[in-house]
Amino acid sequence: MREEWWLATLGRTVVWARLREREAGTAEVLDSDGNTLPYESPDSARAALMDAEYVAFDGLDAEDAAERGFELGELQPPAGDEATLRERMLQQLPHRH
Questions:
Q1: Which of 5, 29, 58, 91 is deepest in the core (most CB within 10 A)?
Q2: Using the 8-state DSSP alphabet, how is residue 37 labeled?
Q3: Which pLDDT tens digits describe the chain residue by residue (97 residues)?
Q4: Contact yes or no for 28/37 (Cβ under 8 A)
Q5: Is residue 97 situated within a structural domain?
Q6: Domain of 64?
Q7: Where does the chain have alpha helices with state H?
Q8: C-alpha closest to that of 40 among 26, 55, 56
Q9: Rounded to whole angstroms, what are the CA distances from 70 to 47, 62, 84, 94?
Q10: Has residue 36 been placed in a domain?
Q11: Is 30 contained in some domain?
């Protein structure tokens, strides 16, 4: 199963979403509320994430991160089992001086 992390930013809050491609060619997204949303294909899941103004974490460069108000080294996708992930899907960025 292939996994991708996506993020959106709201001020100093990072909102994570995890996209998983299933073997059957379908996909599911774990959203920031802890819901698992099914999609007919990985492309439809990606389109829904982009419509909601998410960007792929793996595709970010330093300039993209700066536009969103953080540095690449400040962020890592959440880790843990499903229950732990649900608690970590929202992250506060440190305030800059």
A1: 29
A2: E
A3: 899 999 999 988 999 999 999 999 999 999 999 999 999 999 999 999 999 999 999 999 999 999 888 888 888 999 998 889 988 999 998 776 5
A4: yes
A5: no
A6: 2-92
A7: 42-51, 62-67, 82-88
A8: 26
A9: 24, 9, 24, 9
A10: yes
A11: yes
